[in-house]
Write a structure and sequence with these properties.
This protein is an alpha+beta fold and 183 residues long. 57% of the residues lie in helices and 19% in strands. A hairpin with a 2-residue loop joins strand 2 and strand 3. The longest helix has 29 residues. The chain is elongated. The termini are far apart.
Length: 183
């Protein structure tokens, strides 16, 4: 097996991995109704796919190309999901059912989150239901904080597709977003 076959196999694998990863991000963009992002990702995705599949189809006598194509597909799913979790686009609603509602709500508000508190009844007695809107990147922090203050609490996290008003959190952006916000 010569080096050109190995290089072409590597190229097909990388192209397919990038193509599938972009497809994963495009699908999330479609679900979140980000039309422009979905269009751009779809355009780039299909260009890469045409390149990769044409190399395999033109060289059916090289089974390594098909294996590289399949490996790239599998790896692309992994990479796409990893990237989607890393970017964490979108907003979520964290619903926390707790007997420590006042202390959890107070702490979350001190950190800049908007919290709506409702009294609810469970078979074992009264609870509070705290509803917190957050960016997906901050959702794990909210869940961790709730568990830290009340290990018995129950929380449910839902993606928000549409809401009647934008988030008005007083929490400061972190990471690269904080750099972009500074002027």
């Amino acid at each position: 097996m010569d080096s050109s076959v190995l290089l072409m196999s590597l190229g097909i694998m990388v192209a397919r991995c990038v193509d599938v990863a972009l497809g994963t991000l495009r699908t999330v963009s479609i679900i979140q109704e980000r039309r422009a992002v979905a269009w751009i990702l779809g355009f780039i995705e299909i260009l890469i796919w045409i390149y990769a599949v044409s190399r395999v189809m033109e060289n059916l006598d090289q089974p390594l190309y098909a294996v590289a194509y399949a490996f790239g597909f599998g790896a692309g799913n992994y990479v796409g999901i990893t990237l989607e979790k890393w970017f964490a686009f979108g907003e979520q609603l964290v619903s926390i059912m707790t007997q420590q509602g006042a202390s959890i709500a107070s702490r979350l508000r001190a950190e800049g989150f908007e919290v709506a508190a409702l009294r609810i009844e469970e078979a074992n007695g009264p609870l509070q239901l705290l509803c917190v809107e957050s960016h997906r990147k901050t959702t794990p922090h909210i869940a961790q904080l709730a568990r830290q203050l009340d290990p018995e609490c129950v929380y449910v996290i839902n993606d928000i597709r549409t809401f009647s008003r934008p988030l008005t959190m007083t929490q400061q952006p972190t990471g690269w977003r904080s750099i972009l916000k500074k002027k």
